[in-house]
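Hi there,

I know you've been waiting on this one. I reran it after we fixed the sequence typo, so this is the corrected version. Both the input and the resulting structure follow.
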Amino acid sequence: MRGYLSLLVRGPAPFKGGLGNAVAALLLLVLTLFAPSIASSASHPAWWAQVQAEADQGGYKVIDGKQLKAMLAAKPAPVLLDVRPDYEYAQAHIPGALNLEFHLGDRTTLDPAKAQRMAQLVGPDKNRPLIIYCRSFRCLRSGIASRWAVNMGYKKVLRYPAGWHGWLALQGKVTPDAEPGGLRAGDYFPSCRLVVLDKASDRAYLGLTHTQPSFALEDVDADFLFVELYNELCYGCLKEVASYNALFRDIENDPALNGRLKMLGLGVGSLNREVKRFRRQKKVLFPLFADRGRDVFHCLGEPELPVAYLIQRTGKGRWKILSMLSGHIGDTKAVLRRIKAALAAATAP
């Protein structure tokens, strides 16, 4: 399959003496990492072709676990940047890694303060190798950060796409959520920015106080969110419109939930205009937004559609997954009872 890579390079003749040997080893490693690659279908997993294509487009390189270990053992050491949220970094990280969170909202624009912080962490030497990683191969953060590093002028940007989970596997350790299947209860819902489509009604319902064309989930004025993912070509998704509308009415008519729990939908792979048309034609009662690049869908682990996530705002403003509802929604009254039970459990002292 196209895109599987291995690196082939001839090293220079060894230098004499301890210092010379160290310099030669480092030179060989750098030459190996930045040499042209050739296809090798047996050396990398199935997802490698995708991340390699992203790297080719972004102007950086990708490395596997063997290359990462070799680089970390070299002198001088590269800069290792963990771009997961600080709470994940604080729990555990690759030894020696620095931390600066990137998220989906950084995909098109980068806050100047974050760019300045990155420059401070990485340092002024634009030729020093910079290795960037996040959670796993499903995480888009490391790709976003790598592109920005290239844009900032760093010459040797390397992405370790296997991420923290890949590093654990190298140590012979596997955590339950490192297995395929996506995010689940207890994980944090992906940070993202969404474009406001029905400006007046969406802003009023979600309690948005700014007038920017897009917003982050953190901007929503609610303690809980019920987020549905759908696709217009998904037959089951089309059948669920009436059920989700009924659930929306139930939430709005419940004094204990009205204003506290808000509902929205994400059109996976849809353009903004397609989402607006879909909402109008199907008479969807709650706000819909476009996940055009399937970024949120990808970060969630590409779950089977339709699917919905009940998420709670945490003390730091992030959203944690309380539960997920896959497939046919069924009896909306039963779903409402399930939601209220989850909220009660989440807020119990």
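Quick highlight: The radius of gyration is 23 Å.

Best,
R. S.
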